[in-house]
Every structure is written in structure tokens, then in C-alpha cells.
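Go through this one:
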Amino acid sequence: MHPFAYTKPADTRSALVAGARGGRYIAGGTTLVDLMRETVERPGTLVDISGLPLRDVRTGERRELRIGALARMSDVAAHPRVRSAYPVVSQALELSASAQLRNMATIGGNIMQRTRCTYFRDVSAACNKRQRGSGCAALEGYNRSHAILGTSDACVATHPSDLAVALAALDTVVHLLGPDGERSLTLTEFLLRPGSTPDREHDLRPGELITALEIPPHPQPLRSGYLKVRDRQSYEFALTSAAVVLHITGGVIRDARVAAGGVGTVPWRLTAVERRLVGARPSDRLWAQAAAEASHGARPLRHNGFKTELLERTVERQLRTVGGTP
């Protein structure tokens, strides 16, 4: 680990000043500290924001759910409003990591976590995400765990967050605060596909920090759930996952939101699946037909071609679990 300076601002304004000077924000530190140990990340200054008042979980006047960026994963997963209205979020959080990590890690840090690609974490390997222009060792290397959607010739690393998949399905908004004031982006705008600049993973301006995530109101009644498929039952990153959110009334699907993880360079909204679902009546045949659209546009690599069928099967299973059958 390389030497670094450390500061813990007493208020948000002081934190922004330190961030604008080039400091790296840290709260739970469950990702950044590991990367510093491995010398992947070498920040000159750490700005500890864990004391800032950004932990509230509350419902607004429009029934939107606002989650403070520094709320702990375990607290959000256990929150009564989250568990009752958005079980897909609670399930994604509880499947993300061990209880010890969930007690430390923050919601903002979770969506900011960097890829678990082994080539990214091996400083001797070529990695455009770590150093733009150095190449991508995964393209010709062992790439079983890598992405099949949203890839580019520069990067095929998957996004590691389970929570972000659930939040993407719910059209979550990211609230930011920086030297130039406040702004808001949808999560799918905030998380960037690699393209030719895989080292730029977020639409985050210098000195900005995440203050809250907001789940907008959705039509009721709302059914939702998260399914994660992995190599082992204990805490492991997803080979594929599916977040399904359905609004069904009068025996017809009025609204559908479906997102996948473990297969995309960002949490991947399955819009073709959603289009097939809306206006239809739940049935085993519908779930199978809709799930067949899940892998549209996939670009499998040498070792991860199995993810195409696995994704379709995962989506079908979760559609049936959440939507049921007549």
C-alpha cells in the first residue's frame, strides 16, 4: 500500500472542498481499501465521509423512497418500508455479501464499487480499465465470468453490484452534490458502458459525491424479486441474476421492469423482455417467450457462451416466481 493523507471532514461543505482538491471519498471502505492494498488504486488523500448526515431512509410526499448514500446495506435491507414495498432491493442486498460486510458497506459505495475482473486486479496484466490504452487481457484470456452484453473491444468486465441491478429495474435516480451544486441522474445514466473509455465508469464530476438514491413511485400493487445464480451458495459474485418488477391488475401485466446482472458491463435493462410482457396475461408460455428475448444483442466470448442460455433460464424462472401462473 502506498502512503496517503487522511482527513475526516465534520460537515458536507468541508468534504466537498477536500474532494475538489483531489481527495478520494471513503466511507465503509470495503472495496477501496482492498484495491489500495493491491496497489490498483493509489489515492494521495482519503476523505472520510462516514460522519456526514446521509443515512436516512424515508418516504417523500410523492411516495418516492429516498435512501441516504451512507445508509448501511444491512440497515436498508431490514428497513420495513423497503421490505414491504421493494423486496427486490432487500433480496439483492442480502444476497450481495456476508453479514459482516453488509454491516460496513454503504449504499453509495455499493453502486460505486469496481469490477472483480481478475485482470483488473492484477497490476501485471493489461487492463484498459486500470490504464487506458494498455489492452484487455480478458479478450484472449480466461473469460468465463465476463460480460456478454454492453461490451466493447476495450473492455468486457462485468459490473459487480447486485443492488444496482435491482435499482436499475426500479428506475432509481442518483442525487449528486459537488462544487457546482446539485444534480440528478438516473442510475442507468450514472453508470457508464466501457466504449473506448472503460476507465471512466461513472458520470461523476471532480469533487462530486453521492448524497442519496431515490426510487420513484411505482403503480400499485407491485410485485418484485431478485434471483442470483452463482458457482457456490455462499457469498459469490453472480454468473447471472435477474431483478423483476411487475404491476398486474385484472389478470393483465400493466407494467414490467426487468434487469440482469452478472452478464453486462453495467446493470442491464432487458427492454425487449419488458415489451413482450406488457399487455399480456401471465402464463408459462408468456414467461418462456419473454425470457427468450433476454439475450438479444449478446456477444459471448470463448469461455462464457453458456451465459446466453443461463440468462434466459434465470429470467424465465424469476418471471414465473414473481408473476405466478393462473
User: Anything to note?
Assistant: The first strand starts at residue 5 and ends at 7.
